[in-house]
Amino acid sequence: MSRPFIIVFFLSLVLILGRGFVWPKYQELKFLEQRNEEKRVEIEGRKEYLQDLNKAAKVLKNYQNQLTKIDSALPSDSHLVVLLNFLQKATSQSGLVLKDIQPSTSRPSLDVEGIKENELSLVVAGTYTSFKNFLSTLEMSSRLIEVESISFSSSKEDIQDFNLKIKVYSY
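RE: above sequence
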């Protein structure tokens, strides 16, 4: 065999084997480089997102006082004991006597998702002026308290019994 033929044969063999063994590895390397770039872009996006969250947290710190007010108006749970204590103080400060209080079960609000409603029935006794002061206290409270119904019995005396049904909201 002639020498140029052997050189061409081995060169062709090297090219064919190179294509068979090296080309798949080259394709895998290209795929891994592309995936690496995608991951780098994803990490950059997450870093930017984290920076935005940190900026938002700093801005929210400026509004901490307002957020505390919102949290007291709509607490994360019903805090029934705290509410009953508030109602007891409000009735006594208004000049009323709290005769009876009956809390009912908590149920989800039909209006807003994630908000729970608690209904309470109160029976208080006192004068009409004291009752107006009590309603004013409920209205000025930071808690979201909604008076559903009021009924009262008339008597010859100045003191009357007032029946209230109220709703209190929490999330």
